Amino acid sequence: MFKLTEQPIAKKCAKCKKMKPINQYCVDNSKKDGLYSSCKSCKNKKNRDYKKKNASKVKAYNIKYRKNNKDKISIISKSHYEANKEKRLALSKVYRLNNKDKCIKWGHDYYMNHKVDWYNKKAERRSLKNSATVFYSDKKAIKRIYRTAHILGIINKCKYEVDHIIPLKHPLVCGLHHEDNLQIITMRHNRRKHNRFDPKDYE
Ligand SMILES: [Zn+2]
Hints:
By secondary structure, this protein is mainly alpha-helical. Among the domains are: 9-65, no CATH class; 138-203, no CATH class. Helix content is 56%, strand content 8%. It is built from 7 helices and 4 strands, in the order ββααααααββα. It has helices at 40-53, 55-68, 70-83, 85-98, 100-132, 139-156, 187-193, and strands spanning 10-12, 19-21, 160-164, 182-186. It has a two-stranded antiparallel sheet. The longest helix has 33 residues, at 100-132. 4% of the residues are buried. Zinc ion (ZN) binds next to α1. Zinc ion is lined by residues 13, 15-16, 18, 38-39, 41-42.
């Protein structure tokens, strides 16, 4: 079996014919030396060219692959996200600082393009809350919960949201806009929770 210690420190690329260090080659266990025959940049260029020439074929393949490997992709992307969380956050912070004007413009453009959707969603949410408010809901207590979430956000410099423990809109249940059905959670946690409701949690 091929051992890593037997590897040379450089090899000639079959494509560009340049001598390059072995870390410039992808691993290929079917090859005698355990490395791909062409260097990473040649391999990437080949992939890019193929994708360009066969755009619709590649797109169809990707859609099919994603459909058939949902669980696998979800596990990989979650672990990748966790492993690179700090790095990604630091990088995007630096990017935002260096591209302030660009980011403001993006935010503005995004808002303008989605304005109507947002207003519609907000109105729908408001009417949903109104219809889920029962006569025994304590409106003052509900207001206090929303205010607490706002104050917590200022103190902890983190966005908090008031979440309906049992969702207001769900195929299985219809939660109430009642103080006992409200909880304060971080915006991030809320986005992850989405509209999840598992009846087993309440058995
Ligand atoms: Zn090359």
